[in-house]
Structure formats: C-alpha cells, structure tokens
Amino acid sequence: MQLRILGCSGGIGGANRTTSFLINDSILIDAGTGVGDLSFSALTRIEHVFITHSHLDHIACLPMLVDTIMGSRNAPITVYATETTLNVLKKHIFNWAIWPDFNKIPNAKAPFMRYSLLELGQSCCIDQCTITAIPAVHTVPAVGYKLDSGKSAVIFSGDSVCNTEFWDIVNSTENLSHLIIETAFSNREYELANAAKHFCPLTLLEQLKFLNRPAQVLVTHLKPADSELTMQEILRDHSNISISRLEQNQIITF
Predict the structure, then answer these.
(1) Which of 10, 55, 137, 240 gives a 20 to 30 Å CA spacing to 197?
(2) Confidence (pLDDT) at 112
(3) Partners of 220 in beta bridges
(4) Are 187 and 200 in contact (CB under 8 A)?
(5) pLDDT of 233 strictly over 90
(6) Cα separations in angstroms, 114 against 6, 41, 49, 252
(7) Domain residue limits, the chain
(8) Whole-angstrom Cα distance, residue 253 to residue 162?
(9) Contact 178, 8 (CB under 8 A)
(10) pLDDT tens digits for range 10-56
(11) Which of the listed CATH numbers 3.30.413.10, 3.40.50.300, 3.40.50.2300, 3.60.15.10 matches domain 2-253?
(12) Mode of pairing for the β-strands spanning 2-7 and 251-253
C-alpha cells in the first residue's frame, strides 16, 4: 500500500494544503484542499472517502470532488463517517442551500454519492487495506484511523488531544510502522491549543511518553504562521523517539 500525502497543513496560502491522504488511487482519508491538486483522471479513480470529523479543513474539497466527477463514474463515491459527522454533512453541506444533495441526484436509487455509517471501532476492508475508526477527542465528535495492509500499519490521530484509548490501540498494534499525529500550535499558543483541543509541543511530548513501541512519528496539521517554530520546539525537547515533519507529497509505503 502507498499513502500519498496530498495535504497536511493546518492552513492555506502558498503551497500549503489542508489534510487529505490518498491510499493507492481510490481511497481518501479526509478531503481537505490537497485534493484539488489531483488531475481530473486521478479524481475519477477515487471511490471511497473516510472523514475524521466535520471541520472545514478536512471536508473542504468533498463537495467539489463529487460535483467535478459526477457522471464520469459508473458507481457513486462512498463517504464513510460516524453518524454525527454524516448528519452534519447532510444538514449543513449537501442541503441544496450550500451544495446539491448528491445523495439524491440524479435519483435516490442511483445517486452520485452515498453515505456509509462507520462506528467507532468498526473496520472496513477495501482493496486489501483494513481501515478502522479509532478514538479521538476534539471540539466536535471525531475519529482517527488505523490503516493496515497486513504487512504494516499506519495510525493517524486525526485532530485530537489526550486520549488513553488511542494509546491503547497504538501500543497494541504490533505491525505499527508510522504514527501520524497532529500538533497545530506552538507553545506560545498553549492556552489556545487547549481550548481548540489541539496539541502544542508541550502537550504532544507529554503524550508521546505513552508510546511504548517503535514507530516513525510524523507531525501533521502545523499552522503555517508558526510551523518552523513548532517543529523546533518539538525537536529541541524530544527524547529518543524518531520524530519528523509530515511533508506534502510524501509517500509512505506500508
């Protein structure tokens, strides 16, 4: 399996793209602005979209994706999320006021997009990749995802803070190769990070003490204004854990 990082920034501007990861050619994890850099041909090959939560930086390109490729596929795009997140998409995005309801057109029996409920802890096996919704703690109901090829696994925290259940899953994943974990703010924004339920270096490094198995730790969701400072603060104070910055267009083989 290949995980291509289409976007991993906590903001936009210049080359910054918000969260979206592509597994092989057909599976998206979140649909942030990074999706917009794909060619039309690549967009038509996307069949499944797994959403961590309803915040705009993680769903911004989903409406445009469906609109762009409608009629160019023989099957609908399937959007997977928890019940709460699906309800937000239905009520606030695909509601005819903001965007058409592609779950109803061209007709309800053969729509351009369909929803698939994914409960916390539930797994889907698609193209030999097992995708499992795992716990996350954010300002809205959210999940992370474990991506397992059978050979190795990548765990993505989504937007989240302190969460013992998350670390239980991380530490019980024997074939874990990469841990992608968010840190949005620098330490000078400590209070804001706590209020927004994001990590800053101080809280990230405190949480990483719970990691008890080897893995490459990749930091994502850095806010553009302080991205360099935030990574400096992480790398200055981390112990013997292998930590680096997740990069746009990076490819992780797992």
Answers:
(1) 240
(2) 97
(3) 182
(4) yes
(5) yes
(6) 23, 21, 10, 29
(7) 2-253
(8) 28
(9) no
(10) 999 999 999 999 999 999 999 999 999 999 999 999 999 999 999 99
(11) 3.60.15.10
(12) antiparallel
Strands (E), the chain: 2-7, 20-23, 27-29, 48-50, 77-81, 113-117, 123-126, 129-135, 143-148, 153-156, 176-182, 216-220, 243-245, 251-253
Scanning 7-142, the segments in alpha helix (DSSP H) are: 40-44, 56-59, 62-69, 83-88
Q: What angle do CA 65, 67, 71 make, to 5 degrees?
A: 110
Q: Other C-beta atoms within 10 Å of 61: how many?
A: 26
Check whether the bond before 106 is cis (ω within 30° of 0). yes
Q: Which two tokens stand for residue 220?
A: 């994502």
Please provide the distance, in angstroms rounded to a whole number, between the alpha carbons at the two ends of the chain: 5
What does the block give as tokens for 98? 């903001």
One-letter amino acid at 204 equals: L
Query: Residue 167: beta bridge partners?
Result: none
Q: Are 30 and 12 in contact (CB under 8 A)?
A: no
Q: What pTM value is reported for the model?
A: 0.97
